[in-house]
Amino acid sequence: MDMSGGRRSRTVSFYFVVFGLALLAAGLGVMLVVTLRGAREIPDNVTQRLLLRLAWLSLLLLSLTLILLLWSVIRHVRYRLQWDAPVRRSEYVNAWELAGKRFQLPDDDEEEEEDDYEPDRGE
User: Quick check: 24 and 67 in contact, CB under 8 A?
Assistant: First the structure.
């Protein structure tokens, strides 16, 4: 089995990204629940506001993580659907023939033209 192909490494890296984002989302969800419970039980108003700000921050990071997770799954599914689509081949172009038409060597019978360049005479 050939493991040097790009398809397998792309799939493996996708699973690592999804696993990492899911783990991050779970950790942020736990952090959100813990800070909200702590804010509800603490009578101190300053500490309660601090915990609520921390809960808002964890909610923001959780939503960003879920958006990234959704984006990576959609991108992976779109890539997999394109992978199985039939390949449309481009038409054959003979690059050597085109290069030969663009550049022609001078014939041996023709005399080379002299350049209009005259060197400085050190005046």
Answer: no
**What is the extent of the structural domain holding 71?**
7-85
Tokens of 70: 């959704």
Cα radius of gyration rounded to whole Å, the chain: 33
Chunked in runs of 10, what are the mean pLDDT values of the chain (123 residues)?
A: 54 88 94 92 89 93 95 87 74 86 70 61 63
Within a domain: 97: no
| Type of residue at 59 | L
In a domain, 19, yes or no: yes
Q: What's the pTM value of the predicted model, to 2 decimals?
A: 0.57
The tokens for 106 are 């001078």
